[in-house]
C-alpha cells in the first residue's frame, strides 16, 4: 500500500467521526507496512479535550506494540496536526507524518508554526502534506457548513405558543432543492420564524415575488422557479406563518388578514425588493394584491392566477362558500388527497410534499383559520384595505399584467377572474387554461416561460 491508500483508511475514520457528530478527522499509525492503530476525533463523546484522532491512534498503536516509543512508525492523518498532537508525535518518536488538508488556523506542521522543524529538539520527524488533500478538505468544509446552517436555525428560538415542523419531514422533496432561509426579527413576527426561498442575484433585472395560498406553501412554485432563474432573475418565495417551513402558532385565532399582510409588507421592505413581478395565486392574491399600493415604486408587473380581491361589498362566489363549508365540517381533510384529486398528473411523492408541513392536527391551525378569514362583509378585517387596493388597481397601477386562469377551478375560476381582470388598469393579457384547475402553477409549467417573455417586453 502507498501513502494514498493509507490516507484512504484515515478518511474512513474521518467519515465515521462525521457520522458521530465530531469534527471529521481520522488517523492511522502504520508499523512496517502494518496498521497498528486507528483513531477518529472524539472529544465530544469522550468528554476529553485530548481525544483528537492522532492521540487516539497513538494510544492504540502503543498498546498494540507494547511500547510508548513508536520510532519505526508512520502516522497518516486527514488534517494537519495541531500543536498538542504534533508534540505527542515527537514524544512518541514517530518517524514520519503524512497529512491531507492544511489547517491555516491551528496547523503546527507549517501553516501556523512548524514544531517538526526545530533543530533544538532531540528527535526529528519527516513531514509530508497534501496527500488526498481535496477529499479531506471537502469533508471538513461540508461538516462546518452543515454546522453553520444548524446554528443559524438554532438562532431562531421556538416560541412556547408555536410549533416547528421537524426538518426530517422536508427531506428529499421532489423538485425542491433550494436552501432554506429564515427571518425572525420582523416586528410583526414577534419572534416567529419565517421561511423563504431567495435564489438568483440580488441585482437581477427582475425579482419574482411568489406568494402561495391555502393549503399550499412555497413548494407550489417549484416548477416556475427554474424558468425564472434561467432568465437571470431573482426569485423570492416566502412561506406564510403557519405554512411550509415557517413556524406554526398553536392557536387558530393568531391568524388574521391584517397580521399576515403586515408580515409581507415588512418582508418586502427588509429584503428591499425592487423591480418586482408579483406572482400570486389563491391567498397569495388576497393578501398580495394589497401590497403594491403601499410601495408602487417597487413593482413593475403582476402575474395573477386564480385568486380574488375580497372587498366585502361583492358576494363571495358559490364555489368559495362551498369550500369554506367543507373546511368547517372537515377541518382535518387530507392535504395530499386534495392535491391529487385536482392534479392527477402529480406523483404520490409530490402530493405528500404538500402535506409535509402539517404532520398532525397541532400544525394545522392556519389551515383551519384561513377559510373564515376571507372578508365577506364590508367591516370584516381586510375588507377596507382590499377596497383601497381595488381603487389602486383601477386608477393608479402603472405596470404590466398577465393573467392565467385555470378554468376547471370550482372555487376561483373563470367568472371570478374575469371580474378581477376588469378591475386592473392598462389592460390584462389573458391566458385561459381549459384543462387546468385551482393550482395553476402545477398544471401548466409553460406559464413561467410565457411570463418571462411577456415581462421582457
Summarize the structure.
This protein is α/β, with parallel strands linked by helices and 457 residues long. It has 16 helices and 15 strands.
3D structure, described in words:
The protein has helices spanning 3-19, 43-46, 53-65, 83-92, 133-154, 225-230, 257-271, 283-288, 318-329, 335-342, 348-355, 365-373, 383-395, 414-422, 440-443, 446-455; strands at 26-31, 34-40, 73-79, 96-101, 126-128, 162-163, 181-183, 194-199, 207-211, 234-238, 248-249, 276-281, 299-305, 400-406, 429-433. It is an alpha/beta fold and 457 residues long. The strands form three sheets. An eight-stranded mixed sheet has the order 7-8-10-9-12-13-14-15, with helices on both faces. A five-stranded mixed sheet has the order 2-1-3-4-5. Strand 9 (207-211), helix 6 and strand 10 form a beta-alpha-beta unit. Helix 9 (318-329) packs antiparallel against helix 12 (365-373). The protein is elongated and about 90 Å long. The termini are far apart.
Strand order of the largest sheet: 7-8-10-9-12-13-14-15
**Category from helices, strands and their pairing:** alpha/beta
Our count of helices gives: 16
Main sheet characteristics: 8 strands, mixed
Number of strands: 15
Question: What's the helical proportion of residues?
Answer: 25-40%
The separation of the N and C termini measures 64 Å
* Global Rg: 30 Å
